[in-house]
Design brief:
Number of helices of chain A: 6
Distance between the termini of chain B: 44 Å
Helix content of chain A: over 70%
Shape of chain A: globular
Mean pLDDT of chain B: 95
Oligomer: heterodimer
Strand content of chain A: under 5%
Largest sheet of chain A: none
Order of helices and strands of chain A: HHHHHH
Largest interface: A-B, 110 and 116 residues
Strand content of chain B: under 5%
């Protein structure tokens, strides 16, 4: 079980939307983690420095938040094998699908992009179906 | 330098948002998907808050300025092509997300929380991106051959 946290989740969501808005206003870019990260993986794109700066902020932000004494619940009820298999599949999938939750699910749908709406419906259904199979068909 | 500081600061907002929202916590993400079991609907509020803010924000930004502050133009994807790469790739992504509980935007901020599981996932995900690029380039070569 994890605790239902509507207010913290809403606040976090608003911050995610705010960062997407600022990245567009200042840099003219979509705040999609897949695209930003892919640009720093060799062969990197010519504009890798701002991407690296964004990624560094995304890591250091939560680190500073925790160091300041606030707690962030974290737990991984999985084997390392599942993390590795899941990671490989996520990497291949977001490369073919050209985006993930942040790029398609937030930025794309906010622009009413048909591609992003389709991608988001598909990956949400796939994730729900996968968890159902793992927890209630295999695990049940 | 201004550009880098700006991108860094926006990254901080993104990372803290993801972390407090619960998106960097695989247990919470997996419970969100587990509608038939230990369902935790919190992530509906993440998506709702993020989408509403970005939708309003984008409208304000595009209405207020012809160009972004630091660049010559808005780099917004223009393709409307819905093909098997988009659908199949997204289905695979959803499957991997359902197995590991991490998406790319959740895993990068999770790195800052300092747990050993995150780099394991991230290394595999980056390997997956490299493999995906290779396969995608080959598919493109076959398609045009």
């Amino acid at each position: 079980m994890t605790e239902f946290t509507p207010w913290m989740s809403l606040a976090g969501g608003i911050l995610i939307g705010l960062s997407a808005t600022l990245l567009m206003a200042l840099h003219g870019r979509i705040a999609g983690m897949t695209g930003i990260l892919a640009g720093v993986i060799p062969p990197a794109t010519g504009d890798w420095p701002w991407r690296a700066a964004f990624l560094a902020g995304a890591v250091i932000g939560p680190m500073a938040y925790v160091l300041a004494g606030y707690s962030i619940p974290f737990s991984v009820p999985l084997t390392p094998t599942m993390l590795i298999v899941g990671g490989l599949i996520v990497g291949i999938g977001v490369t073919y699908g050209a985006g993930c939750t942040s790029g398609h699910g937030v930025c794309g749908i906010a622009r009413l992009s048909p591609r992003s709406i389709v991608a988001t419906v598909v990956f949400m259904i796939a994730a729900i179906a996968t968890v159902f199979v793992i927890r209630h068909v295999i695990g049940g | 330098m201004q550009k880098l500081i700006s991108a860094f600061a926006i990254g901080i907002i993104f990372g803290v948002g993801i972390a407090i929202a619960g998106m960097a916590n695989p247990a919470k993400v997996l419970n969100f998907f587990d509608i038939a079991g230990t369902w935790d609907p919190s992530l509906i509020f993440v998506m709702g808050g993020a989408l509403l803010t970005a939708a309003i924000g984008y409208r304000v930004v595009f209405g207020a300025r012809q160009t972004p502050v630091f660049e010559q133009h808005y780099a917004v994807p223009t393709s409307n092509l819905i093909d098997w790469q988009l659908v199949g790739g997204s289905a695979l992504f959803g499957m991997g997300w359902g197995i590991a509980g991490f998406c790319p935007g959740g895993a990068i901020p999770a790195l800052g929380l300092g747990y050993a599981e995150t780099p394991i996932f991230l290394a595999a995900m980056i390997a997956g991106i490299v493999v995906g690029r290779f396969l995608k380039a080959r598919t493109a070569k076959f398609a045009t051959a």
